[in-house]
Amino acid sequence: MIKGLYETHINVSNLETAINFYKNVLGLFHCHTEEKRRVAFFWIGQSKEYMLGIWEKPVGELEKRHFAFRCDTEDIVNRSVSFLKEKNLQPYNFLKDETERPMVFAWMPAIAIYFNDPDGNVLEFIAVLEGKARPELGVISYEEWLAVNRH
To answer: 140 and 80 in one domain?
Structure first.
C-alpha cells in the first residue's frame, strides 16, 4: 500500500521569513499560502510530486524537526557545501573532524550533509549510494567509503 512519503510539515516562528528561506534560498516552488491559517505549501521536485508545509506558531510552541531532501550523489559531493555557504548557511556533519564535508552513513549506505533553517529545524541533503551496506564502519568520509568499496 505505502509507496513513499508524500508530504511533511514543520512549524516556524515567522511565516514570511520561512517562505523567503524555502523559496528564495533553497529554491523550492511556493505553490500556496493560507494567510488566515498562517500556513504555506511548497512543491519539492516536480509539481504535486512531494510537498512541504510550513505552519507559523508562537515561539513557545516550536519544536525543532528534521527532514532530508533527496539529491544526486554528484551534487552532494561537488556542490552541496558551496551551495550552502553561498546561501550563508553553515553545513555540518557527524565526522568529529571539524570539517564541513559530506559524510557517509555506511549502514545505508548514503552520503549526506546537514544544515539548519532560520528556526533551527535540521535539514539534510542525502543521496543513497551504490554498494553493500557496511554498518560496522559507522559514519565515515566519502573518501573512506570510496577506498573501502574499491576492493
So the answer is: yes
